[in-house]
Amino acid sequence: MSTPREAIVEEVADAALDFESIFHSHYGGIARAIVRVVRDPARAEEIAVETFWKFWRNPKAARSGHAGGWLYRTAIRMALDDLKKEARRLRRESTEANRLPPQTPEQAHSSSEERVRVRLVLASLDPRQAELLLLRNNDLSYAEVAVALDLNPASVGTLISRAQQAFRKEYVNQYGEPDYER
Amino acid sequence: MNDEQWVNRRMHDLDTETEWRPNAAAALAGLRRRDGRRRTWRRGWIWSAAMTSACAVVLLGLPSPAKCALVGVGCRGAVPASVLLAPAVATKAAGEPAKYKESGSPTAAVVLEIYSDYECPACAYFYTNTFPDFVAEYVKTGKVRIVHRDFPLPQHPYARLAARYANAAGELGHYDEVAMQLFSHQPEWAANGNVDASVAQVLAPGTMQQVRALVEKDPKLDDTVVSDLAIVTKEQIHQTPTLVFVYKGSRQTIDGPPTLTILKSFLDQLLKQTATTP
After folding, report:
1. Which residues in A127-151 are b (16+ Cβ under 10 Å) and which e?
2. Per residue in A6-26, pLDDT tens?
3. Separation of alpha carbons B138 and B128, rounded Å
4. pLDDT grade, residue B88 (50/70/90)?
């Protein structure tokens, strides 16, 4: 039987071990999820580190048993916040992109302008819908998305479907249907 | 193409630049450094908070005009306006103390003026703990001459009455024993204002009767107090006890009750200085 002091030392050591194992399990995925939103890898790593810092400072999240969901949700929210701050600049870039001559489907598909448009639409969506699309896009299952966003698992499919409709509508409103989709 | 396929195709565009590999090792090292900085900052913050709290306790503990109970600090106060506006009734020139308030050699190199209030706890502490040894070592040896100055603070309701008793006893040649009696038994008479009973313990009944008569009827008994308060105002003295060392035309002030060690250290240096300079 350990003394109270030994028990505290063990608990602290366990917590540190848990954090490291969670970090190594999720850091890569979290950072990649963020870079999809913010584009800049250096900035994505900064946000990823900030996410894990919040996690480290939030023992409740660490003990919840849903560390992955918490991390993805926090990371996506922070990334979307960052994206909104960049929205003005993105819009300016997008406007310039609209002045470009029509591209072939291959060109359009690979162009950075398309990514700018997608990000701009995500930034203008309802945050919850943007989070749903991004979490789903990061290969989280419906159950994982439900845990991350504290939703009823039965309604996740419907909510994602609505988010997709909203995204398409917003995209078409802003940029029109892509030529190669017509 | 349905919405799901259409959106997935758009979202897939975001993946095209994800060949990059996040540097987990650098990120973890960064987190550890940050945690270390936070711990350092937290320790610093706790230390600062503790120091601030300690300072606050000390500052809050400083005696205010309404309350002064800290023996080690002293009592702060100002001369009441009524005293300053009173007509100059002093029979002695301002600054010239009553003879009974002086002790020590008239030729001593250093004069120590002690501004005190009979109801001030710090003054009582100084007079009962430090003063006797100081007198034995410096006053009786002719090094220092002492001048007692009355500074009854307005927040002490019986200080002025006590000063009247001490000065009345002084007129009859019993200043030192009454002053010491008042300081050493301060808690008793300060509780109920019965200064008379306390003074009566150290004076013969006949002398006590004379003291009572002076306290009750002598209109000039407060002159020395008024004279001392005029100096208090002029020298901008704000608390009791205040010790003013006068030597070779200079004045140096110690606010609050010094310990005997500090007092001796200060005086020895001062006496050495006065002996070496012409």
Report:
1. eebbbbbbbbbbebebebbbbbbee
2. 554 555 555 555 778 888 888
3. 16
4. very low
Which residues have a Cβ under 8 Å from the Cβ of B58 and sit 6 or more positions away? none
Q: Find chain A residues with C-beta within 8 A of B39's C-beta.
A: none
Cα–Cα dist B220/B217, whole Å: 9
Residue type at B202 in one-letter notation: V
**In terms of Cα–Cα distance, which of B171, B165, B204 is closest to B183?**
B165
Nearest to A35 among B1, B11, B20 (CB): B20
Tokens of B161: 């009455």
Asked whether residue A92 carries a pLDDT value surpassing 90, the answer given is no
Q: Tell me how crowded residue A174 is: count the other CB atoms within 10 A of its CB.
A: 14
CA dist B159 and B118 (Å) reads 5
Q: Per-residue DSSP letters for B214-254?
A: HHHH-TTTTHHHHHHHHHHHHTT--EESEEEEEETTEEEEE
Which residues, 6 or more positions from B42, have their beta carbon under 8 angstroms from its beta carbon?
none
In 3-state terms chain A splits into helix, strand, coil percentages (rounded to 5) of: 85, 0, 15
C-beta atoms surrounding A171 within 10 Å: 22
Q: Which of B5, B7, B42 to mutate to test the interface with A (most CBs of A within 10 A)?
A: B7
How far is the C-alpha of B34 from the C-alpha of A55, rounded, in Å? Answer: 13
How far is the C-alpha of A155 from the C-alpha of A147, rounded, in Å? 12
Bond preceding residue B241 cis, omega within 30 of 0: yes
Q: Both tokens of residue B186?
A: 């301060």
Which chain B residue is nearest to residue A107, measuring alpha carbons?
A: B13
Six-digit token string for A49: 């580190």
pLDDT of residue A93: 61
pTM of the complete model: 0.46
Strand-pair category, B102-103 with B144-150: antiparallel
Assigned token pair, B68: 């002064």
B30–A41 C-beta distance less than 8 A: no
Half-sphere exposure of A32 (CA within 13 A, CB side): 17
Q: What are phi and psi of B150, to 5 degrees?
A: -85, 130
Residue range B95-105: mean pLDDT, rounded: 81
DSSP strand pairing (B144-150 vs B110-116): parallel
* A94-134 per-position pLDDT tens digit: 565 555 444 555 554 555 778 888 888 888 889 899 999 98
For residue A39, what is the enclosing H or E element? none
